UniProtKB/TrEMBL annotation:
Signal peptide: none annotated. Its cofactor is FAD. Residues 279-436 form the Acyl-CoA dehydrogenase/oxidase C-terminal domain. It holds the Pfam family AidB_N. Residues 462-498 form the Acyl-CoA dehydrogenase 11-like C-terminal domain. This is Acyl-CoA dehydrogenase family protein. Gene3D superfamilies: 2.40.110.20, 6.10.250.600, Butyryl-CoA Dehydrogenase, subunit A, domain 3. Keywords: FAD, Flavoprotein, Oxidoreductase. The keyword Ribosomal protein does not apply. Residues 12-159 form the Adaptive response protein AidB N-terminal domain. Belongs to the acyl-CoA dehydrogenase family. It comes from the Bacteria. It comes from Dokdonella soli. Residues 169-267 form the Acyl-CoA oxidase/dehydrogenase middle domain.
Length: 498
């Protein structure tokens, strides 16, 4: 008889997640925890069902149709069946709304991100536009532009799929990706005081969204980042036609293939400035920090899925006379990955707690400085770790881990996006330098000191890493190139120590 290996089985991803459950019991008041547990349990069950369904049907990808049968330009993007159910699930579980609702006060973000963490893999990266929608809502709130807040927030934070909107975040151009100061898109003001955008956006994920925040240079403004303005636009006009937008093509990507990422031309797209028509990077920064938090949470979700599958498989697969989980070296290999995942989990969910505290005004004065530094650290560290854990997971499955319809290779291909978008590892390491400068390190050190006081003295690593960082910053303060070339090492050391 030919031997047939049993496939790994995924159980309810909430019930089976010891790390998440223990964390939520500790971090949330009992009443908050009790009120959200039913939803988390449903999301955990859905995660397992969605995984099994994905293994038993043909993969599906978005399709761009540029012209209709009669020659009209339509630029229609057909989305996958899972994406078609995305709005209903988002509204039902408040995947964006929960982070902004006041019901759970300072715990709103922790509640929201627990939901996102459970749902991410099942969503086929529908979480990407959700992250950008959350980021747009946050940036609009911070801008104080009451007209745009009244117009867009009820849609972005809707609990009704019929009125829910998705937002894009259109920053990257052919010249200006990390360095958005090279943006070539021009904003032209007409005689009636209305702005129109002309240019090319090179990566626009979830182009099916109803709105976007985007950067453009007001005509005649000088070069560089500071003179860019942040604009709000709706992708279609009142009749449903594209608002001066042409979709050139969808990207042919290594991973995230269910997510439609388009190249666009803006050819007279009507747009409204979010604030003054200048300082666009400063205005979009709240969006960046929120989407970077989503990225860290979703990278954790990839790690958790990889480890759930690898541990289950190790209990089913035999080699050299015993189950893999009984082989000391295989068990130690998985345990080391699990330990790294758990450390990253604590860092990321601590960032969600801090975000909730800062946004609701429940924070100590230095929490803002700590959040400012920990956000890029959490993003850059988890992006790298997710790729490593996904790669080790392929290996933990042996040859099966290299075979497409086991589902394992996709985890690795998808993971590779986390360190690239929303700021690469190096760009975020430089952002950490930016945040630690201008006395940021003092605030971080005080906030860390206060936390360590609360938590007891068992986290001396943070203190010594911060002291070493301070000494290093002082020693190199006059040598910008030396500072930059050491920024990645500094960031990774700090991320590991928190
Ligand atoms: C499923 C997972 C979910 C994830 C969804 C992801 C979807 C994918 C979407 C994308 O990839 S969108 C494109 C993302 N692109 C980037 O992240 C660009 C990366 N580049 C950077 O982050 C650069 O650091 C940046 C363009 C922001 C700044 O470059 P500059 O030109 O050197 O800016 P500068 O002069 O240092 O900063 C301008 C202002 O912004 C300063 O404030 P002031 O004007 O008040 O002095 C900075 O302090 C402020 N700033 C910059 N980054 C900030 C920030 N403030 C707060 N937080 C930050 N992170
Ligand atoms: P570059 O800026 O050319 O970077 C190339 C390399 O140089 C990187 O390794 C980088 O770390 C390094 N580097 C750059 N500057 C420095 C420096 N000063 N010091 C040290 N190293 C440096 N963008 C959007 O705006 N909206 C979207 O919706 C969107 N969706 C995306 C979806 C996917 C699947 C992908 C892959 C990308 C998406 N992006 C989107 C684009 C993404 O944000 C950019 O690709 C990313 O910010 C990097 O920019 P770049 O491609 O121009 O790389």
């Amino acid at each position: 008889m030919d031997f047939v290996q049993t496939a790994p089985v995924l159980g309810n991803q909430y019930r089976d997640d010891r790390v998440l459950r223990a964390y939520l019991e500790r971090a949330l008041p009992r009443a908050v925890h009790a009120s959200i547990e039913g939803d988390l349990d449903e999301l955990g069950a859905h995660a397992a069902v969605a995984w099994n369904e994905a293994r038993t049907r043909m993969p599906s990808e978005p399709v761009l149709t540029q012209w209709d049968a009669w020659g009209a330009r339509i630029d229609h993007v057909g989305i996958t069946p899972v994406w078609q159910r995305g709005a209903a699930l988002t509204a039902r579980y408040g995947l964006v709304a929960a982070g902004h609702e006041t019901t759970h006060g300072a715990h709103a973000r922790t509640d929201q991100f627990a939901r996102v963490y459970l749902h991410h893999i099942a969503s086929e990266f529908y979480t990407c536009p959700l992250a950008m929608s959350d980021g747009a809502a946050t940036a609009l709130k911070a801008s104080g532009n009451s007209a745009l807040i009244e117009r867009a927030l009820p849609h972005l934070l809707s609990r009704d799929p019929a009125t829910l909107w998705l937002s894009g975040q259109w920053m990257t151009e052919t010249a200006g990706g990390s360095d958005v100061g090279d943006t070539e898109t021009i904003a032209r003001l007409d005689g009636d005081g209305r702005w129109w955008l002309y240019g090319r956006k090179w990566f626009t994920s979830a182009v099916v969204g109803e709105m976007a925040l985007t950067l453009a240079r007001p005509e005649g403004a000088p070069g560089g980042a500071d003179s860019l303005a942040l604009f709000y636009l709706e992708t279609r006009d009142a009749t449903g036609r594209w608002n001066g937008i042409r979709i050139d093509r969808l990207k042919d990507k290594l991973g995230t293939r269910e997510l439609p990422t388009a190249e666009l031309h803006l050819d007279g797209a009507y747009a409204e400035p979010v604030g003054e028509a200048v300082h666009g990077v400063r205005l979009i920064a709240p969006m960046l920090n929120v989407t970077r938090t989503w990225n860290a949470v979703c990278a954790l979700a990839t790690m958790r899925r990889c480890l759930a599958l690898a541990f289950d498989y190790a209990r089913r697969r035999h080699a050299f006379g015993r189950r893999l989980i009984e082989q000391p070296l295989h068990r130690a290999t998985l345990a080391a990955l699990q330990a790294e995942f758990e450390a990253a989990f604590q860092l990321v969910f601590f960032v969600t707690e801090l975000l909730g505290r800062v946004e609701t005004g429940a924070s100590a004065s230095d929490d803002k400085a700590l959040l400012r530094v920990l956000t890029p650290l959490a993003k850059l560290w988890t992006g790298k770790l997710a790729v490593r854990i996904a790669s080790e997971t392929c290996e933990a499955f042996g040859g099966a881990g290299y075979i497409e319809n086991t589902g394992i290779p996709q985890l690795l291909r998808d993971a590779q996006v986390y360190p690239i978008w929303e700021g690469t590892t190096n760009v975020l390491a430089l952002d950490v330098l930016r945040a630690l400068g201008a006395n940021g390190i003092d605030g971080v050190t005080r906030a860390a000191g206060a936390l360590l006081g609360e938590a007891g003295s068992d986290r001396h690593g943070v203190r010594s890493a911060l002291d070493a960082a301070r000494n290093w910053l002082v020693a190199h303060s006059a040598h910008r190139d030396a500072l930059e070339s050491g920024a990645r090492g500094l960031a990774l050391t700090l991320a590991r120590s928190f």
